[in-house]
Design brief:
200 residues; single chain; Lysozyme
């Protein structure tokens, strides 16, 4: 019991520092790619391979998320948006759910002490970096689009090193606490294996 209390206490400071991405000057080409990625407003479509996969994933994730987002319709809208934006950015949707759990506790209007906003705790300077000053970081899809694009950007910079990319995302590069907490949330709360359908 004492160990769990100490572990919980060690996690508390992380909440205060959630989403403190640091501004780094970007080359014009990188800035253009980020702007294009954020601005691409293709009509929403399913990011699932088939309807059975969608039903299975949404049902399972909805069950796990029910206490945090009680409204069923809002929960399914949230999960569809997470799956779409994560898949679009080449990220594991369950990783993104783990990151959101750590960053904001699934609170849409969360604001960190550093000023980061929304589910994925996006720092406001990103709106200026991509040249979309009217974007609202509390809007569900906008927040997820920015957050997933930023994490993808950091993964590209770090050549696929998730540990370092997560450190950049949180503004704590080189410190193990944040990447480890996200991995634990991802693996313990949101890990998901596709069910294999029995062949007839």
């Amino acid at each position: 019991m004492r160990y769990l209390t100490a572990l919980f206490a060690s996690l508390l400071p992380l909440a205060a520092h959630a989403g403190a991405q640091k501004y780094e000057p970007l080359s014009a080409s990188v800035q253009a790619v980020l702007t294009r990625s954020i601005s691409d407003r293709a009509p929403p479509r399913s990011s699932f391979q088939d309807s059975m996969e969608a039903i299975d994933w949404l049902t399972e994730m909805s069950r796990r998320l029910e206490k945090r987002i009680p409204d069923r319709e809002a929960r399914f809208e949230f999960l569809r948006a997470v799956h779409y934006e994560a898949t679009r950015a080449g990220l594991d949707p369950q990783l993104v759910l783990g990151l959101i759990q750590v960053e904001s506790g699934f609170k849409k209007y969360a604001v960190s002490t550093a000023g980061a906003r929304g589910f994925m705790q996006v720092m406001p300077f990103w709106v200026k970096v991509v040249g979309r000053s009217d974007d609202n970081l509390f809007h569900l899809r906008t927040n997820l689009r920015y957050g997933c694009t930023i994490l993808r950007h950091y993964l590209d910079i770090e050549r696929g090193d998730l540990y370092r990319a997560l450190g950049r995302y949180n503004g704590s590069l080189g410190q193990p606490q944040y990447p480890n907490v996200v991995r634990v949330a991802w693996q313990n709360q949101w890990s998901y294996t596709k069910r294999k359908l029995a062949m007839r």
